[in-house]
Design brief:
- The protein is built from four helices and six strands; from the N terminus they run αββαααββββ.
- The protein has a six-stranded mixed β-sheet, sandwiched between helices.
- It has a single domain, classed as Nuclear Transport Factor 2, Chain: A (Roll), CATH 3.10.450.
- It has helices spanning about 15-30, 70-95, 115-120, 125, and strands at about 35, 60-65, 135-150, 155-170, 175-185, 195-205.
- Mean pLDDT is about 80; it is low at about 1-20 and about 25-55.
- The radius of gyration is 17 Å and the shape is globular.
- By secondary structure, it is α+β, with helices and mostly antiparallel strands.
């Protein structure tokens, strides 16, 4: 009998600014873009970009689509910077720290104040707050980010990070958790990328002996 799969929950970005950025990126990307062709749509199991099993899984972050004109070196720099923001979220909210774990109040580094407040209200989705106190261990399996960039006059203006995070969490039984979605980012006054909104789905399935 196949173990049940949890129904994913989704949080849509609420801010009008976030929606404008996201829709503009999607419209421009769909109309015609330059850049890499990886769609970052799911967990393909190929382990590209340094995917390793265990607690030291490295982030696979790459530039994908670009709306506008942005040179390859700058495009790759954006991917690294945005990837670092996403990885800090993954580590703080999901796969970092010791378990059992009860506190998740610092789970959203790199988020703006408003986005952090919203993420805290969705903490069972945007962090491991729902399972942390009872989890015996959490082991990362895959961290993947594909970065779509909105450029204007040769400068990056906004980005959408499409991500997949996979990890195993052991409570009474071990389950494989998958967190996917998008994060919308803009540059702050100091030139740092900050998450202003997100769209996240989460699911899990109990593992059998052949899955490990």
């Amino acid at each position: 009998m196949t173990p049940p799969v949890a129904k994913p929950r989704v949080r849509r970005p609420r801010s009008a600014v976030v929606l404008t950025i996201s829709l503009l990126l999607l419209a421009l990307v769909g109309a015609g873009c330059s850049g890499g062709g990886d769609d970052g749509g799911g967990d393909d199991g190929r382990g590209g970009g340094g995917d390793r099993i265990g607690r030291e899984v490295r982030l696979d972050a790459r530039a994908a689509k670009v709306a506008g004109v942005l040179g390859k070196p700058r495009r790759e720099k954006v991917a690294r910077e945005v990837g670092a923001v996403m990885d800090s979220w993954f580590e703080a909210a999901y796969v970092g720290g010791d378990y059992p774990r009860g506190s998740f109040k610092d789970s959203w580094p790199g988020f703006t104040r408003d986005a952090r407040r919203q993420a805290a209200s969705d903490k069972r989705l945007t962090s491991n707050a729902g399972i942390g106190p009872k989890a015996e261990s959490v082991v990362p399996r895959r961290k993947k980010v594909r970065v779509d960039v909105l450029a204007w006059k040769g400068q990056q203006r906004a980005a959408t990070a499409r991500f997949t995070l996979v990890f195993d969490a052991t409570l009474k039984r071990t389950a494989r958790h998958k967190v996917t979605g998008r994060a919308m980012l803009v540059l702050d006054r100091k030139g740092r990328w900050r998450v202003v909104g997100y769209d996240v789905s989460r699911s899990h399935r109990v593992l059998g002996g052949d899955d490990r």
